[in-house]
Design goal:
- There is one protein chain.
- By secondary structure, the chain is an alpha+beta fold.
- The strands form 4 sheets. Strands 1-2-3-6-5-4 form a 6-stranded antiparallel beta barrel.
- The longest helix is centred in the N-terminal third of the chain and has 24 residues.
- The protein starts with 18 loop residues before the first helix and ends in a 12-residue tail after the last strand.
Length: 383
C-alpha cells in the first residue's frame, strides 16, 4: 500500500483570529484584482506593510528575553558594586590652624595593595596637613602621603592596616568605546556612591595635567569622585576618575579618568621612590601644519618644535625650532600628548632616534635623553 503524506491544512483567515493579517490580505487581493499598475503597486505595498505590522510590534515591544537581559545587567551591577566596595575609600583632607584641624575637602581612593597602599589624585591631597581615610564598613584611619606626581595628577598614600582588598587594575586589553563601566566614590560627600555608564571616548587631552590620555565616560561623576575607580563589569579598575566637564561652558554628563596602565606604572614608582623619574628631551611643542609652524586643527597636523631649551638633550643633539617630529624611537608621533608620553616612559640616558622633517627634508638623529627636571615649564626661557 502506498504511503500517503498528509498535506498541510490551508490557512483560512478569520477576523477574530488575526484582524491585522486579514486587512493585509484583503488589500493585497484588491491590488491583484485591479488593472491599473500604479494603483496595484500602491495597494500591494500597503498590504505588505499592514501584514508586517504584528512583527514590527513584536520587535519593538520588550519580550521575555529582553526583560531577562535587563534583570541580568541589574544583577551584574549589584554584584560588581558589592565586589569592589571594600577596595574603595573616602578621603577627607584637613588643614590645621592653631593646632586645630579644619575641614577642607573630600575625595576618593582605591586600595592599590593589601598592605595599606592607596592610590588617589594628587589634587585631592594637595596642601592637606591631615588625611582621614574611611572604608565602606565605617573604619576610619589616618593616612600618610608616600608620594605625589602633579604632572599626572596621581598620589599614593599608606594606612596602617593589613589584609585589605586590593582591586585589580586592568591595563590590557584597553577599554573600548561603548564598554559598560561603573564609577564608585564619594561624590559631594555621599560615601560609596555607584553610578553606571559607558566609556564614551579615548585619548582625551584637557590641558589640566602635563601627561594626559584620559578615558571619557558618561557615568555620573561629581566633585568628591576624584581618585575613585572606574571599573568594568568584572570589577577591574580601568581608570581613576579625575575630572568633570565644565558646566559653565555647556558641558553636561562628561567625566574623565586616568587609564589604568598609566596609574599602575606611576603608582608603583611613587610607592618605591616617592617620586617619578622621566626621560627629558627639552623642547616646546605645538600642533602645526605639515608645511610650517602655523597652528591648525584637522587632518594632516603634526607635532612641531616651537623652541628648544638651552643645554637640553634636544639642543645638544642638534634639533632646532621649526623641526616637525614624525617618529620617536620608531614610534609614529601623532600628537603632543603622544610624544610627551613616549618621552616620559623612556629611561634617562637612553639613546633614542628621532625622525623629523626640516625645510621639507626628512632627517633623523640620535638623542641622549636627560632626566626631566621638576616644573619644566617654569625653567629658563627657551629659544
Amino acid at each position: 500500500m502506498n504511503k500517503l503524506t498528509r498535506t498541510p491544512r490551508a490557512r483560512v483567515w478569520s477576523p477574530r483570529a488575526d484582524p491585522v493579517a486579514g486587512v493585509g490580505a484583503a488589500v493585497r487581493g484588491a491590488a491583484a484584482a485591479t488593472r491599473r499598475p500604479f494603483i496595484a503597486c500602491a495597494l500591494g505595498a500597503a498590504g505588505l506593510l499592514v501584514a508586517a505590522a504584528p512583527a514590527l510590534v513584536r520587535a519593538i515591544a520588550p519580550g521575555p528575553g529582553d526583560l531577562d537581559l535587563a534583570r541580568a545587567v541589574s544583577r551584574t551591577y549589584q554584584d560588581v558594586s558589592a565586589l569592589v566596595a571594600p577596595g574603595v575609600v573616602s578621603i577627607a583632607t584637613f588643614e590645621t590652624r592653631g593646632g586645630l584641624p579644619l575641614p577642607r575637602s573630600q575625595g576618593s581612593g582605591v586600595v592599590f595593595r593589601a598592605d595599606g597602599v592607596i592610590v588617589t589624585n594628587a589634587h585631592v591631597v594637595a596642601g592637606a596637613d591631615v588625611l582621614e581615610v574611611t572604608f565602606v564598613d565605617g573604619t576610619s584611619v589616618r593616612a600618610e602621603v608616600i608620594g605625589t606626581d602633579e604632572e599626572s595628577d596621581l598620589a599614593v598614600l599608606r594606612v596602617p592596616l593589613q589584609g585589605l582588598l586590593a582591586l585589580t587594575f586592568r591595563a590590557e586589553p584597553a577599554p573600548r568605546v561603548g564598554e559598560a563601566v561603573l564609577a564608585v566614590g564619594n561624590p559631594l560627600g555621599l560615601g560609596h556612591t555607584v553610578t553606571a555608564g559607558i566609556v564614551s571616548g579615548l585619548g582625551r587631552a584637557l590641558g589640566i595635567a602635563t601627561y594626559e590620555d584620559f578615558l571619557q565616560t558618561d557615568a555620573s561623576i561629581h566633585p568628591g569622585n576624584s581618585g575613585g575607580p572606574l571599573v568594568d563589569l568584572e570589577g577591574r579598575v580601568v581608570g581613576i576618575n579625575t575630572a568633570v566637564s565644565d558646566r559653565a561652558r555647556g558641558g553636561q554628563g562628561l567625566g574623565f579618568a586616568i587609564p589604568a596602565r598609566m596609574v599602575q606604572a606611576i603608582a608603583a614608582e611613587l610607592e618605591a621612590h616617592g617620586s617619578v623619574t622621566r626621560g627629558y628631551l627639552g623642547v616646546q611643542l605645538a600642533m602645526v601644519d605639515a608645511k610650517g609652524s602655523v597652528p591648525r586643527i584637522g587632518p594632516g597636523e603634526h607635532v612641531g618644535v616651537e623652541s628648544v631649551y638651552r643645554g637640553s638633550p634636544a639642543e645638544l643633539a642638534g634639533m632646532r625650532a621649526g623641526d616637525i617630529i614624525l617618529a620617536f624611537g620608531g614610534v609614529d608621533v601623532r600628537s603632543v600628548s603622544d610624544l610627551l608620553g613616549i618621552v616620559a616612559r623612556a629611561k634617562p640616558n637612553a639613546v633614542i632616534e628621532v625622525r623629523f622633517r626640516r625645510s621639507g627634508e626628512e632627517r633623523s638623529l640620535p638623542v641622549v635623553l636627560g632626566v626631566r627636571p621638576p616644573r619644566v615649564a617654569e625653567r629658563a626661557p627657551a629659544r
